[in-house]
């Protein structure tokens, strides 16, 4: 049985290969039951979340990811997300690999946003604003830089020191990296805005979005959380990773729906429809596009299979 730690998982999931693997899996599809989503009480702190995400390709692979999200870890200097992925044979049930769940989650999440950006961001998008300084932020920046000609990256965080640390961690040749102190000004200049936070209140306002911009919302994975306001979703053409997930869990979609700011018909397409060519994505240079992801077990399965097969090929 193969066991991949975080470094090995990262090395086995290069951005170009991972984005392609996700595109292929969304185009083909797989069996993906509704994920288990449980609130876990942490005395004296915000509740944690336990996620169990199964998916399988009949006769090929079966996978399940167990992930915990502990918001209180930010104050301890620990990652908020921990997890493991178990990959088994779809023919015999034999356990084939245990993959580091945190690294797999970070990379497949960033790759899903990059895949969406291929359809939704302008082809000449060069300025990226990263809102958030957690584990996902560097992954998201790197992934977007693979699919679009990013030349300027601005990082904003509630704690400027963390934003500066994130900027130092990046090593992207030919890309100018800076830290923003004025979020509104940075947002108004950005071609692509990616948000990966645990915010419960809007951070990016719709009035800040310039024509032709693309808003990539990765955090707010609960109905009570959100990263943007009703104005943003009402101005934008909305796309999601999966309709079921976005309509039940994504606060940036659920809350505007409840408020009557949008209807379900406002969602133009999901990644299944984009990958299968049923929707072209962006339709004009000035169109404002919005992508909301809440994560899907399909993405984990695609990444775990890619990592397993890459190591098997080297053996």
UniProtKB/TrEMBL annotation:
GO MF terms, alphabetically ordered: ornithine cyclodeaminase activity
Top EC category: lyase
Keywords: Lyase, NAD
EC number(s) reported in the record: 4.3.1.12
Record PANTHER family: KETIMINE REDUCTASE MU-CRYSTALLIN
Family: Belongs to the ornithine cyclodeaminase/mu-crystallin family.
Name of this chain's protein: Ornithine cyclodeaminase
Species of origin: Sinorhizobium kostiense
């Amino acid at each position: 049985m193969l066991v991949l730690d975080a470094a090995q998982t990262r090395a086995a999931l290069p951005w170009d290969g991972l984005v392609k693997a996700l595109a292929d899996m969304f185009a083909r599809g797989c069996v993906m039951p509704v994920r288990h989503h449980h609130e876990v009480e942490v005395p004296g702190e915000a509740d944690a979340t336990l996620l169990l995400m199964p998916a399988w390709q009949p006769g090929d692979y079966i996978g399940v990811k167990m992930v915990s999200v502990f918001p209180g870890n930010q104050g301890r200097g620990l990652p908020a997300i921990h997890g493991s992925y178990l990959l088994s044979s779809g023919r015999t049930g034999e356990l084939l690999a245990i993959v580091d769940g945190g690294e797999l989650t970070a990379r497949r999440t960033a790759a899903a946003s990059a895949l969406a950006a291929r359809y939704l961001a302008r082809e000449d998008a060069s300025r990226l604003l990263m809102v958030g300084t957690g584990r996902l932020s560097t992954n998201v920046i790197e992934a977007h830089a693979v699919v679009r000609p990013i030349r300027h990256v601005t990082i904003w965080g509630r704690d400027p020191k963390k934003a500066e640390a994130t900027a130092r961690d990046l090593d992207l040749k030919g890309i100018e990296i800076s830290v923003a102190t004025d979020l509104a000004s940075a947002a108004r200049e950005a071609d692509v805005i990616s948000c990966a936070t645990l915010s419960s209140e809007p951070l990016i306002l719709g009035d800040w979005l310039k024509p032709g911009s693309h808003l990539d919302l990765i955090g707010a994975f609960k109905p009570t959380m959100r990263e943007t306001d009703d104005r943003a979703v009402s101005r934008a053409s909305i796309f999601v990773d999966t309709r079921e997930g976005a309509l039940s869990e994504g606060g940036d979609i659920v809350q505007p729906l409840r408020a009557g700011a949008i209807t379900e018909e406002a969602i133009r397409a999901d990644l299944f429809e984009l990958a299968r060519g049923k929707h072209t994505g962006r339709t004009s240079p000035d169109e404002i596009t919005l992508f909301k992801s809440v994560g899907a077990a399909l993405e984990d399965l695609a990444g775990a299979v890619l990592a397993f097969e890459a190591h098997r090929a080297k053996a």
